[in-house]
Design goal:
- By secondary structure, this protein is an alpha/beta fold.
- The chain has helices at about 20-35, 55-65, 115-125, 185-190; strands spanning about 10-15, 45-50, 70-80, 90-95, 105-110, 130-140, 155, 180-185.
- The strands form 2 sheets. A 6-stranded mixed sheet has the order 4-3-2-5-6-7.
- Helix 3 links the parallel strand 5 and strand 6 (about 130-140).
- Helix 1 (about 20-35) packs across helix 2.
- The longest helix has 18 residues, at about 20-35.
- The radius of gyration is 17 Å and the shape is globular.
- The relative contact order is 0.20.
- It binds guanosine-5'-monophosphate (5GP).
- Guanosine-5'-monophosphate binds next to strand 5 and helix 3.
C-alpha cells in the first residue's frame, strides 16, 4: 500500500490492492478479447459516470492490447437512492452520444450491489436495439447474485460492505484511491 497519501489514514482496511486490480483487469481484458475476436465493427464500451471512470480507462487500454477496435461512451445517471443505497429508479442525466442500433456493447461497471441500476441500464440499451449487450463488472457484492442480472465477466466477489477507491466515492471523495478499501467508522461520524 502507498504510504503517506492523505486518504491512507481514513482507510480501515484494504479489500483489494492496486496490484490485484491491475492483474485482474489484464485477465478480464484477455477473456473479453478472446470471446470477441470475430466482431467486425469493434466493441462499444459503455460506462456509467463517475464510478466506472478508473476501470474504463484501465480496462479499455488492456483490451486494446489484445482485442478488436473499441469505442467508448459514457452515460450519467441519477438514482433516487439516498446515501449509500440505490433505489432502482433512474433518471438519465447524460445520454449516449450516438445510435447504438446493431452494435455489440460491453457495459463496463465498477460494482454491482443490488443490481438495480444495471438492470435498468440493460433494459435501456436493449430498447435502443443493440445487437448484443454484455457486462464486465470489476466488483460484485453478494446481494447481486440474487438478482437476475447477467454479468458475464466478474473481477472480484467482495463482502457486502460499503467500499471506496478505484472510482468509488463517499461524498465524492476517495475516487482517486488506487486500491479498494473500507473507511474507518469515524469518517462517517464526522460527515
Ligand atoms: P446497485 O444498483 O447495484 O445497488 O449499485 C449501483 C451503484 O451504486 C454502483 O454503480 C456504485 O456507483 C454504487 N455502489 C454500490 N456499492 C457501492 C459501494 O460499496 N461503494 C460505493 N462507493 N458505491 C457503491
Amino acid at each position: 500500500m502507498a504510504q503517506g497519501s492523505w486518504y491512507d489514514a481514513d482507510i480501515d482496511h484494504v479489500i483489494i490492492s492496486e496490484e490485484q486490480i491491475r492483474e485482474k483487469i489484464a485477465e478480464l481484458a484477455k477473456q473479453v478479447a478472446a470471446d470477441h475476436a470475430s466482431v467486425d465493427d469493434g466493441l462499444l464500451l459503455v460506462g456509467v459516470l463517475k464510478g466506472a471512470v478508473m476501470f474504463m480507462a484501465d480496462f479499455a487500454r488492456a483490451l486494446g492490447r489484445y482485442g478488436p477496435p473499441i469505442e467508448i461512451e459514457f452515460m450519467a445517471l441519477s438514482s433516487y437512492g439516498q446515501g449509500t443505497t440505490s433505489s432502482g429508479v433512474v433518471r438519465i442525466r447524460k445520454d449516449l452520444d450516438r445510435d447504438i442500433a446493431g452494435r455489440h456493447i460491453v457495459v463496463v461497471e465498477d460494482i454491482v450491489d443490488s443490481g438495480l441500476t444495471l438492470n435498468w441500464l440493460l433494459r435501456y440499451l436493449e430498447s435502443r436495439e443493440a445487437a448484443s449487450v454484455e457486462v464486465v463488472a470489476l466488483f460484485r457484492k453478494p446481494d447481486a447474485i440474487k438478482v437476475p442480472v447477467p454479468v458475464k465477466y466478474v473481477g472480484f466477489d467482495i463482502p457486502s460492505e460499503f467500499v471506496v477507491g478505484y472510482g468509488l466515492d463517499f461524498g465524492e471523495r476517495y475516487r482517486e484511491v488506487p486500491y479498494v478499501g473500507v473507511l474507518k467508522p469515524e469518517v462517517y461520524a464526522r460527515s
